[in-house]
User: Which sequence fits this backbone?
């Protein structure tokens, strides 16, 4: 069965091998194969472009920007923590963040026996993303708030573990941007609804190519 049309590009890759940006919905694994016995979907349900692989990952219960590429050098460059590409997340948490909470996130926390790198964290207004499917389960007696958290590393469930460590359980997590650290604008979700993807533009392709040639 053919997949629904979710590619917003003109149908041709801007680079060879192909590189694309995907707005990963909730409930989708960052891989092209389903896991036995799991109810989670996979990338093959949404993307039919061959020979592309995620540069980094998002947990199935997280949403947002995922870059996929057939260029192994680029994949390595974007995931190697030595390069410190900042990734930005909008995080809905349970509770009222205090200055002490935010400062702890910024300094770094001991998570599973290792200290996280210093991060950026600030409270933001509700970004009005629309309701997630399935909806977030909220307790009427407990307020929620939105944070923007920026990290230079991508440890397993790091954002969720960090907010939990300061008493603010994560309810919803959306990666919204990736900084290429080349002086240009970050790659973002702009123009992509959940489940949609597009090939990188020629200008974006030049920037990504420069990363691996530099």
Assistant:
């Amino acid at each position: 069965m053919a997949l629904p049309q979710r590619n917003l590009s003109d149908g041709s890759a801007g680079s060879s091998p192909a590189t694309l940006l995907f707005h990963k919905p909730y409930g989708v694994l960052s891989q092209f194969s389903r896991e036995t016995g799991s109810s989670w979907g996979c990338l093959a349900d949404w993307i039919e472009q061959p020979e592309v692989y995620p540069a980094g990952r998002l947990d199935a219960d997280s949403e947002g920007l995922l870059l996929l590429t057939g260029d192994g050098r680029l994949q390595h460059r974007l995931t190697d923590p030595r390069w410190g590409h900042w990734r930005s997340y909008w995080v809905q948490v349970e509770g009222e963040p205090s200055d002490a909470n935010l400062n702890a996130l910024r300094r770094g926390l001991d998570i599973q026996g290792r200290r996280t790198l210093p991060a950026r964290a600030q409270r933001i207004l509700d970004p009005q993303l629309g309701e997630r499917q399935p909806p977030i389960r909220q307790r009427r007696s407990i307020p929620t708030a939105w944070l923007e958290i920026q990290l230079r590393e991508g440890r397993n469930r790091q954002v969720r573990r960090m907010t939990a460590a300061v008493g603010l359980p994560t309810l919803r997590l959306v990666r919204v941007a990736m900084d290429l650290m080349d002086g240009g604008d970050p790659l973002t979700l702009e123009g992509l609804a959940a489940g949609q993807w597009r090939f990188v533009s020629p200008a974006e392709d030049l920037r990504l190519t420069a990363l691996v040639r530099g």
Notes: The helical segments are 72-79, 99-107, 158-165, 202-213. The chain is about 15% helix and 25% strand. The longest helix spans residues 202-213.
